[in-house]
Amino acid sequence: MKLTFDSEMEDAHSMLRDNKKHNQTTDTLIGQGSVIDGKLDCESNLRIEGKFKGEIHCKGQVIIGETGEANSNIHGTDIVVAGIVIGDITTKGRLTITSSGEVKGNVSVAKLIIAEGGLLIGTSTMEKAASPLPIKEKVSKSAQPEAG
């Protein structure tokens, strides 16, 4: 039996180094057992496994884990709810409510995915994601038959 732990760790360290080169931000974690009250402005990804009460504005992905509870209005790029959210959610990306997730509030999203068992108690508004401008086609002049 051969262990490949060293090579796997090397791959993980390599990925971390590459990620740091491209992304100078650090993900934010509110761990299980933590309770926070306030306003959170986040430049990176956010994961909540504890309890948070207040406003959340996140430029990255927001994940409310299975043990997470957010009594918050949430604005984020992509949002995954596996725990409980009481408040409104706004994203120009995708909202995913997993089978263990509950959202009690209104959602305004581009894409909405609710797994079997997931709950949305509120209204949903969906807007198309911004798409690139259409390419103008060249109009060709076709030969006009002469009247005769």
UniProtKB/TrEMBL annotation:
Q: Check the record and name the Pfam families matching this protein.
A: Bactofilin
Q: Which family does it belong to?
A: Belongs to the bactofilin family.
What protein name does the entry list? Protein CcmA, bactofilin family
